[in-house]
Amino acid sequence: MTHPSLRRARTSTTLLPAAALAVALVLSACAAGDGGGAAPDDGPAPGATPAEPGSVLDLAAVCPATVVMQQDWQPQAEHGGMYELVGDDYAVDTDAKAVTGSLVAQGVDTGVEIEVRSGGPNVGFQRVSDLMHLDTDILIGAVNTDQAISAAAAGRPVVALTSQMTLSPQIYMWDPATYPDATTIADVAATGATIVTSGEVVPTLLAEQGIVSRDQVDASYEGTPQRFVTDPSIIQQGFGTNEPYVYENDLPQWDEPVAYQYLHELGYSIYPEPITVREADVTAQADCLERLVPILQRSQLDFLAEPERTNALIVDLVEQFQTSWTYSPEVGEYSVATQLREGIVTDDPASGVFGQIDGERIAATVETFTGLLTQTGALDEGVVVDPESLYTNQFIDTSISMADVVRD
Questions:
Q1: Long-range pairs for 14-20: beta carbons < 8 A, 24 or more residues apart
Q2: Considering the domain 27-166+272-404 in this protein, what is its CATH number?
Q3: 308-355 per-position pLDDT tens digit
Q4: pTM recorded for the entire structure
Q5: Which CATH class is domain 168-266?
């Protein structure tokens, strides 16, 4: 597999916020501290028109009454395509860390409800692919390609239907004051710095390239900043769409820039959090997916074009959930701007269609990551995963592209 060339590491910059607009658009919601959650009112969501019966936006006859979607982390703008579909009549379950409302697409009430469940610590860090097979109420899950390989080998196959981010926003970051001459992960790793990360796959990928050594890896990262703040000599994982802004602007204990490099530049070729279903549902829910997948293609682009309402929803959910996770309107704005500026979200380079899965990229990823997962013990020796079993483009609307919705 050919790895992308290295680029100069970035130091975070502050974008001009539109906080006043986002705050003004913060949506009202019903908090359910007992975990019950008031159901959205009958009838179309406020500001939405009912779908014309039988139209492409009418999901009532073909989809479950509630389309349940499982995310892999706390609410954030990287998940905007899902939250974009939650209508203004939403209700919050603060115990389950979930939101339910009318599923509204392009201003049209589709006739069903959507429930978006947050993941990470809220589900005991269980894999989304495992949750999907434990709870068949979940129709849609956000499952990284490397996790899908493991799930297939374990007999819990999932199939990617469309991507919402094209490249992984995952980074390794470091303190530019501690390493003033470093421009890449390799520069910092060459000093012997400890790498604080979660899981063994990425360090193994970098070790195979001679960038790091395995004895530098500390796989105890849980998403909190304390370790980095107290020990600026470490390398730490994060998202280039989140941590650079947060550490410089929202973290008083740090309040300085960080330097970083994207892991997709170093061969981390997975599709990040694509829209997936259980393998059996490709057939069992085909009528639903034929209408739902184009809606999800379009919802990501609608979010990026006008993110204020959905980012305000995300901020409201984080505030109501009352976990250790925090999120501000400015972070959401930074994430959207970075996704666009850095090419995290693009049309599929091979086809020019937004959300279409590139089979050659999947095949190359399977070839690389099967070996890595075997080395880390996540796969047994000799396991073979068919790349074509991990994705399908059969539900993709090939007329959808970023040029139609998101403009400079």
A1: 14/245, 14/248, 14/249, 15/245, 15/333, 15/334, 15/337, 17/329, 17/330, 17/333, 18/308, 18/329, 18/333, 19/328, 19/329, 19/330, 19/333
A2: 3.40.190.10
A3: 999 999 999 999 999 989 999 999 999 999 999 999 999 999 999 999
A4: 0.88
A5: alpha beta
